[in-house]
Amino acid sequence: MTNAVSGTNTTEGTTAGARLETALLAGGCFWGMEELIRAIPGVVKTEVGYTGGQIADPNYSVVKTGRSGHAEAVRVVFDPAKLSYSDLLEKWFFRMHDPTTKNRQGNDVGTQYRSAIYTYSPEQKRAAETSRQVFQDRLTVAGFGRITTEIADAPPFYYAEDYHQQYLAKNPGGYCGLGGTGVSCPVGVVSASKG
Predict the structure, then answer these.
(1) Which of 23, 24, 26, 29 is catalytic?
(2) For position 142, which CATH number holds?
(3) What percent of the chain has pLDDT over 70?
């Protein structure tokens, strides 16, 4: 699969010798999330797909019904020397969608649009839990409800159909229901708390 924007292959390795990390995030329609995430400095590649459900090898026609249990998600490969996992969550993920709306972002409604952070290590899980609490504190002050973002070990990720990859880059007028809350998260909280 070729990235529609950069022309690079999104399913092969990247810079030789680089120690890269992977994040798996769900926060509404994967078209909009991928469009925002792929522009973040330190992100090496993004792929959209399905995760967290009960059906193996799902496709969009099954996932869009909301009955598969899968969320639309973005798998993010990033260079931790340029972008920390905590910054990815605090500066970007929690701000790009409304994590207080259960199974909904804008006009997109259903379990496939839930907010979730799927982690690949105990360190990622701790960072996600800390970031969620810090952002909850900020949302509470701003008058928002409880965060509904689930945090769980990363389940299998199923690559979405090619036409979904970099969809908004290929279709600039395409729909994106992400709006966020307008609340920002203080940065450096997780890294500072590591001591």
Answers:
(1) 29
(2) 3.30.1060.10
(3) 82
